[in-house]
C-alpha cells in the first residue's frame, strides 16, 4: 500500500494463503482479525483527504507496534486492516489481542 507502506490486499491475501497452508501442515493455531476505523469517512469529509491520509498512517503505525514479528498485517481497504495472528497457543488468544 503506497500510503501506509503495509502490504495491500493482494499481497496480504498471498501471504495469508501461505500462512494458512503452513499452519495447517504444522497443526498450528492462527486467527484473522478485521479492524475497521469507525467514523473514518466523516473525518475525510470534514477535514479533507490529507488529514484522513495522516490518520491512516498514524493508525497503521500504532497498530503495527502492538503486533509480534510473526503476525501478518496489511491494509485491506480504505479504512480496514487485516491482522493474521500466527502461532497462537489457543484460539481464545485472538480475543486477548483484539482487546
How would you describe this protein?
- It is a single chain.
- The protein is built from 4 helices and 3 strands, in the order H-E-H-H-E-E-H.
- It is an alpha+beta fold and 99 residues long.
- The protein has a single domain (9-94), classed as Reverse transcriptase/Diguanylate cyclase domain (Alpha-Beta Plaits, 2-Layer Sandwich), CATH 3.30.70.
- The chain has a 3-stranded antiparallel sheet with strand order 1-3-2.
Write the layout of secondary structure elements.
Elements: H1 9-26, E1 29-36, H2 40-47, H3 49-65, E2 72-77, E3 80-88, H4 93-98
Antiparallel strand pairs: 1-3, 2-3
Observed structural traits:
elongated; Alpha-Beta Plaits; 23% strand; three-stranded antiparallel beta sheet; alpha+beta
Question: Could you give the count of β-strands?
Answer: 3
Side by side, the strands of the main sheet go 1-3-2
What does the radius of gyration come to? 15 Å
Tally of DSSP helical segments = 4
Question: Can you identify the CATH superfamily?
Answer: Reverse transcriptase/Diguanylate cyclase domain
Number of domains: 1
Shape descriptor reads elongated
Amino acid at each position: 500500500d503506497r500510503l501506509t507502506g503495509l502490504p495491500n490486499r493482494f499481497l496480504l491475501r498471498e501471504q495469508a494463503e501461505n500462512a494458512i497452508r503452513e499452519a495447517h501442515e504444522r497443526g498450528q493455531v492462527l486467527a484473522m482479525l478485521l479492524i475497521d476505523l469507525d467514523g473514518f469517512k466523516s473525518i475525510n469529509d470534514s477535514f479533507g483527504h490529507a488529514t484522513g491520509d495522516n490518520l491512516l498512517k498514524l493508525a497503521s503505525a500504532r497498530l503495527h507496534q502492538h503486533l509480534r514479528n510473526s503476525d501478518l498485517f496489511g491494509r485491506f481497504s480504505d479504512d480496514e486492516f487485516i491482522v493474521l495472528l500466527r502461532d497462537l497457543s489457543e484460539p481464545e488468544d485472538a480475543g486477548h489481542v483484539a482487546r
